[in-house]
Write a structure and sequence with these properties.
Largest sheet: 9 strands, mixed
Shape: globular
CATH topology: Spore Coat Polysaccharide Biosynthesis Protein SpsA, Chain A
Structural class: alpha/beta
CATH superfamily: Spore Coat Polysaccharide Biosynthesis Protein SpsA, Chain A
Distance between the termini: 62 Å
Number of domains: 1
CATH class: Alpha Beta
Radius of gyration: 19 Å
Number of strands: 9
Strand content: 5-15%
Helix content: 25-40%
Order of helices and strands: EEHEEHEHEEEHHEHHH
Amino acid sequence: MTEYEPESPGSLALESSAPEHRFRAAAVLAGGASERMGGRDKQFLDAGGMPLAFRILNRLGAVFPEFMIVTNRPEGYRAYPGPLQAFPDRVRGFGPLSGLHAALSASSSPWVYVVACDTPEFDARWVRTLSEAILREEGAGRAPLAAAAGYGNHLEPFHAFYSRDLLPHIESCFSRRTIPDRSCSIGSVLSGLQHLRIEESVVRSLYPDWGLFRNINTPEDWASYRRDEAEVDDPVAGLQGTPLGTGIDDKKHLEVRDWAQRLRRNRCAQSRSQFQK
């Protein structure tokens, strides 16, 4: 494991010659049971007139040319307004590790940025921080298989980059565990393998309250998130900066915003119609 701490945490820009095509993909994992949400499927919670997972996909799609969702309900994404890969786990029963395996298997990108549907925040500065750290490691002759935030003695499994070279190690874990259990997890697979840990002090220099890694597990978490989002109500908020030299497609940004506004207006009209009945 390599610990990364830049000399100047505020200097996050990648060189214009960075091979951005190697970091072109992102995936949302949405296969959880939502047990603590009272039976409500978190990926389809109403986030300002659109499903929560749609909101996350919009944010990722404004930055990453290739984006996908690993879900137990792929049919729920037929209405997504744009090209999207939606598919279930290939190997079931191993929780987020199954989702990571499916995403890496489906992607043509050497690296995939991975979030969960219940970690809905996004900031392009963090994408830049991770990709910059990976490039520095590779430039020093090392080959990390993942790059993630460190939190105490743990790694944050989401808002992290994973290399497709991790696939054989994941599949080896699957083959050793005929009965899925907690010992076959993202953390256990990375244990003993070369990976990059962004020190907590560096992460907190960007997110003092750890807000990027905010997790929605309960109805109370959801209510708090909705209150905070109501102050912004922008489905592509958090896209500060232009990571990886790709830039942010202003036309796509406006299309997403217009679509979200139309969806909200239609939903309000439907609600009024039902009320008048």
